[in-house]
What we know:
Layout (H helix, E strand, L loop, with lengths): L17 H29 L5 E3 L4 E4 L2 E4 H4 L5 E6 L15 H7 L5 H5 L3 E7 L3 H11 L5 E4 L3 H4 L7 E8 L2 E9 L9 H6 L39 H8 L10
Amino acid sequence: MEHQKGHLALNTPPIVSPQEWETARQQLLVKEKALTRSRDALAAERRRMPWVDVEKKYEFDGPKGKASLIDLFDGRRQLIVYRAFFEPGVFGWPEHACRGCSFGADQVAHLAHLNARDTTLAFASRAPQADIGRLKARMGWTMPWYTITDSFDADFGVDEWHGTNVFFRNGERVFRTYFINNRGDEAMGSTWSYLDMTALGRQEEWEDSPEGYPQTPPYKWWNWHDEYTAGASVDPRWNKVVENAKVTLNLND
Length: 253
């Protein structure tokens, strides 16, 4: 296929009829579905990973002052912490955070959906809070973002490179449940990808989770991000939409 002057011609795939295109799509779809099932199985295995007791007391600076690791949970059971590089010595300082970390921050979905699954997402850097607040305002980011003041980054493998740590809180005890870095961070941003790396998963009935894990019917817990209400029952009108859907909701398909 020829392009405008100054651009290289591309060796494109063949141009076919709609019927031939659909046949090719269906063949590839078999592999895509297998990948989805494999991803679900991997998430199920992740939910059975052993945990590590976090005994050290970490301290952060936040917009409201000093904060412990437990404070970062914001009252929820699960915490996801992305180590973003925004500090002296990082390319872009002081106007910007690392380009890669900023690229990732731009992908983060509305946090209300994670919060509805008892999960908090937070970012952490070594920049002072004044600089973090300025950066968030400039870039339009709303996630809670804390300042690392001790060895948290070194202790959890994110002192020299980005990474995403997951924690679970049981009362006053905190456990590290999983860690993703390098290209694993590419998938982060959507509500589903974050939940899939947590100890409790998406918390839906179709998931293969250990006995006793919290689970609710799929789809029915969804809501508009400005209308989640803690403890509210499922809207019966939305129940009807899901139950009367013409398309079969088959999560194993």
